[in-house]
């Protein structure tokens, strides 16, 4: 342990970390980064296979995004966003609206994924109050869903190790079974089922739609819930039910947006118009905090009134629409166009899927799932019964430690080992990462 690491442990409390573990495994001191690689102070490199918590879209140290940040610093670093505006925010809002589903026409700025979702929840809740339906106060979410760490977002997330300690403080919400095909909640096989797991949601809406404000879900992949990838038909059915029963549909694209699934947004796989879309993480490619909540004219107009009518949306953050963050986001979107990122990624996805298939032959791997350049392996004690490893086994921690020795950042989600690869990855890098990952899992 070097002096910097000792100073870190003396003063810093790290997120999602049991700090006692750091006595034996102190945080790795990263000095610089380039492309897919992180470099520590000892000269070692690590493939950033999870895009530094899913936000680094174009790789580290991209010159275009750096230049945009430097240029913005010369003119305006920050200004309050109530009663004032600026060009980067206006240009970013216009660009995002041009990319989003048709009916999403308004942009509300905030700072991170949790706040983007909080904004959507509060807007939905107040919309029904503003339009004379104050009984519509509840939200429906998936039992493996994850939407953030604030109390509102935890209230519409599944109860698990991440948030169980705070559950007494959550507001009441409805949970329905997730479309978890490997562990189907209605004991069906995907090849023969008719999205039967949707029935729980249908029955709930039939009974409770008069008190439901909205349904919130992550489109196509439940990320923190275990990288659970589900059929696009399920998303389409949810959208139809939301329309049928007059409840809002909130799509949380914080993790799935900006090319992660092979399209700009996961919602692009289905022809539907959500009422809200929440964006963050990849929006600035990991350079600066920023989040957006997109919504419709219909919802916007329910708040548009004389000030004395109290229909104003009273919500905001100090760093809302920070000009430097907005400039980074605009540059990131320009990189998508100039480097033809989605077109290039599309060519790599078949290779990625092919390489992942080989993992199913390993004794500890029960399931393989992927979408875009996101891939996951679910580790099990027994393949025939799908018996999971006990939390006491800490199998994920063992994979993480062995991964570091192979120059990989493999930060697990319990028994789920996953890759959330930067979209700038090249074919030889992809093959190298998969070979090293295979070696780690095989060594178990």
Describe this entry's structure for a reader:
The protein is α/β, with parallel strands linked by helices and 444 residues long. Helix 3 runs antiparallel to helix 10, helix 4 crosses helix 10 (323-338) and helix 11 (341-357) runs parallel beside helix 13 (427-442). The chain has 2 domains: 3-58 and 341-442, Alpha-Beta Complex (Aspartate Aminotransferase, domain 1); 67-337, Aspartate Aminotransferase, domain 2. Strand 13 and strand 14 (374-382) form a beta hairpin. It starts with a helix and ends with a helix. It is built from 13 helices and 16 strands. 33% of the residues lie in helices and 17% in strands. It has a 7-stranded mixed sheet with strand order 4-12-11-10-7-5-6, with helices on both faces. The protein has helices spanning 3-11, 51-54, 63-73, 87-99, 113-130, 151-155, 199-208, 232-244, 297-301, 323-338, 341-357, 395-405, 427-442, and strands at 30-34, 37-40, 45-47, 104-110, 138-142, 174-176, 212-217, 221-222, 228-229, 248-252, 276-279, 291-296, 365-371, 374-382, 387-388, 416-420.
């Amino acid at each position: 342990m070097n002096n910097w690491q000792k100073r870190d442990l003396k003063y810093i409390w790290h997120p999602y970390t049991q700090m006692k573990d750091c006595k034996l495994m102190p945080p790795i001191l990263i000095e610089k980064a380039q492309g897919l690689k992180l470099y520590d102070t000892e000269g070692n490199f690590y493939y950033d296979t999870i895009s530094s918590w899913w936000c680094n879209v174009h790789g580290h140290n991209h010159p275009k995004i750096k230049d945009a940040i430097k240029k913005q610093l010369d003119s305006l670093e920050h200004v309050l966003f109530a009663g004032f505006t600026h060009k980067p925010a206006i240009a970013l809002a216009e660009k995002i609206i041009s990319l989003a589903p048709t009916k999403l026409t308004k942009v509300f700025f905030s700072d991170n994924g949790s706040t983007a979702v909080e904004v959507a929840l509060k807007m939905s809740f107040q919309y029904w109050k503003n339009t004379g339906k104050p009984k519509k106060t509840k939200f429906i979410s998936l039992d493996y869903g994850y939407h953030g760490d604030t109390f509102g977002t935890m209230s519409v997330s599944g109860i698990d190790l991440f948030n169980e300690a705070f559950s007494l403080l959550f507001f009441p919400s409805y949970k329905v079974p997730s479309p978890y095909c490997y562990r189907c909640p209605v004991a069906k096989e995907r090849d023969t089922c008719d999205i039967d797991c949707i029935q729980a949601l249908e029955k709930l809406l039939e009974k409770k739609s008069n008190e439901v404000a909205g349904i919130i879900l992550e489109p196509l992949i439940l990320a923190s819930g275990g990288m659970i990838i589900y059929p696009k038909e399920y998303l389409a059915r949810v959208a139809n039910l939301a329309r049928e029963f007059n409840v809002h549909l909130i799509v949380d694209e914080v993790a799935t947006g900006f090319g992660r699934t092979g399209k700009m947004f996961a919602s692009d796989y289905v022809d539907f118009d959500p009422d809200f879309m929440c964006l963050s993480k990849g929006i600035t490619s990991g350079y600066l905090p920023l989040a957006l909540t997109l919504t419709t004219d219909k919802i916007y107009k329910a708040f548009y009134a004389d000030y004395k009518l109290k229909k104003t949306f009273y919500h905001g953050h100090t760093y809302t629409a920070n000009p430097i963050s907005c400039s980074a986001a605009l540059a990131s979107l320009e990189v998508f166009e100039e480097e033809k990122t989605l077109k290039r990624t599309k060519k790599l996805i078949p290779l990625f899927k092919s390489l992942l298939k080989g993992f199913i032959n390993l004794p500890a791997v029960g399931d393989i799932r992927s979408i875009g350049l996101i891939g996951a392996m679910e580790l099990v004690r027994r393949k025939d019964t799908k018996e999971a490893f006990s939390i006491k086994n800490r199998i994920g921690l063992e994979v993480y430690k062995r991964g570091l020795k192979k120059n990989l950042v493999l930060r697990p989600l319990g028994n789920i080992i996953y890759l959330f690869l930067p979209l700038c990855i090249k074919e030889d890098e992809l093959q190298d990462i998969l070979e090293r990952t295979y070696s780690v899992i095989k060594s178990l």
